[in-house]
Amino acid sequence: MAGAYKRAIRDILDNRFLNAVTVITIALSILIVSAFALLFINVNDLMHSWRDSLRVMVYLKSDVAVAELSDVEQKIRLMPNIKAVHFVSKEDALAQLKSQMPGQASLFQNLKENPLPDAFEIRVQPDADVNQKITYLVGELKRFPWVEQIEYGQRWLGKFTNIFNLFRISGYAAGCLFLMAAVFIVANTIRLVIYARRDEVEIMRLVGAADNFIKAPFYVEGVIQGALGGFIGLAVCLGLFFFISSKMDQGLTAEILQVRFLPVWVWLAVWFASITVGWLGCFISLKQYLKN
Amino acid sequence: MENEAKNSIIRLFHVSKRYGTKNALLDVTLDVYKNEFLFISGPSGAGKSTLLKLLFLGETVTEGQILVDGMNLSRISRSRVPFLRRRIGIVFQDYKLIPTKSVYENVALVLEAAGVKRRIVTKKVKSVLRTVGMEDRIDSLPPSLSGGEQQRVAVARAVVGDPMIILADEPTGSLDAESARIILDLLKAFHERDTTVIVATHDTQLIRKEGARTIYLDQGQLQTPTIS
Lengths: 292, 228
Ligand SMILES: Nc1ncnc2c1ncn2[C@@H]1O[C@H](COP(=O)(O)OP(=O)(O)O)[C@@H](O)[C@H]1O
Ligand SMILES: [Mg+2]
Fold this sequence. Notes:
heterodimer; A: alpha+beta; Alpha-Beta Plaits; 2 domains; 4-stranded antiparallel sheet; about 10% strand; B: alpha/beta; Rossmann fold; 6-stranded mixed sheet; binds magnesium ion
């Protein structure tokens, strides 16, 4: 096995240009794949926080007795996919309104009685299908006699989710295509290396070397190419990320847009995919070579 | 016949080999005995190389059967071929050394491929290179050596794995008389160590002085049965 490493490294050094081109190609496809992943993860975070901030406000009729309130709250709580139910009394609502409009104190002093209704603020589990859940919930709530009005605003989010999903699918498809292209480029490199070494391979066979002994260095070479290309691609992606996010920090966007880099498991998964690309490329070219 | 079978290490039964429509070998039946030194002679194109290739499965027979050390070559699966070849050391006219590997690496390859431990590899390779008189050129690359020297390295490679059989195809064909003498003496020396040696050559001068059994091929057919 030590011999396999030695020969793989010698092959790489002997074919520097070919190997450099291969590694760069893998690095580029990994860069594209990880950039897509980065974008998706951050847009996903953003959408999650939007979904999380979604509220369904249920305004109650003024004739609902205080004694009934806990019963009503219980009914809402028992509905599916409810994350939290919060009672906002009309007094709380007025106090909140006052604090939001500090310069308008005189406006509120003229009020003889509180014109605001009691309300329940409902938060729904912020899953991807939060829209359907809210639609369902609103439909259910409307049937209760104590409901005066329901307010919710999620329609635009639904549209955005659909567009994003479409974008995500095409992103995955593009990523797969790039990885497949990388596999064939590795396969081609290994094929050329085998071709350059055909006399040596023939001699090894004549002296009793088994296929695995002959193949091992090529696999090591493919895996090194994959690991190196993946490392470079991810490093460039990380560099670009810090460059762009440092630019963004200076703007106002920083407060509303919390960006983050790929989590460790995605790093590792992408790197693993890159190594698999190297291995697979080698597998394909060795399969061809074994046929003759 | 019973006795023959016991002492034979290689047996060919009505072996024919055709390339397209050309008969390279035709109905060859032959026994090679344990620890024998055998010459295969005959004009160029007679089928000598073909016969040797059949023995290490460099080619497969068209008709007939071959047994090598009890193994039926037509029944050996692809994955077992390396095990056959580890029992056979081969010397070629064109040496077939790997030009980018040192003398040491070329010889060590045989043992590494067989999974021998590194420490033992070093010991054996050095010892065999000493025997063929190439211990001073251990780190040289083959292209920097003379033909005779390269063939000595090739002989070292053929014997380093302690094979039961050595096949040499025109081993002296590219060498001057003195180098040829050295190579033949080396092969005879390894024959003394309980190895069966088969040398294919069209050089009748080379054979004449040796007392070994010689078989003659002409147009793929065995000419003289056996002269002991
Ligand atoms: N791979 C091959 N394809 C076609 N014909 C071949 C091949 N190898 C050998 N031959 C033919 O088979 C015959 C025997 O060849 P060979 O065994 O090399 O003879 P020798 O070694 O006695 O000179 C020759 O006529 C040669 O042209
Ligand atoms: Mg020949």
